[in-house]
Hints:
Layout: H1 27-39, H2 48-60, H3 72-97
Protein name: Short-chain dehydrogenase/reductase SDR
Organism: Streptomyces violaceusniger
Amino acid sequence: MSSAPPPWSWPCFPPCAGASEEIADYAETVGPTRRMTQTAGGAEPGDPARAAAAILAALDAERTPLRLPLGSDAVDAVLSHLDAIRSDVTTWEKTARDTAYPR
């Protein structure tokens, strides 16, 4: 029996011995993500067991969802995106509908 912790408790971004050196030209664009991967491991807000249970429940549902955002941040991001899409479509609805051949 292994004394290693179960995989779901491992940090999401473990330190990587083979990480490349930071390239100054990319520090402004990629730097924040690089730093996040070096410091965020183990601090993720989600509970992997609850995520797995939600996925299994979705798979067992009468109508399995095409998308299942997990976590409040994911739900907020998807709903915000949908609001933006609805606003764009509503703003341009008449123009978009007017592209059909006349009847």
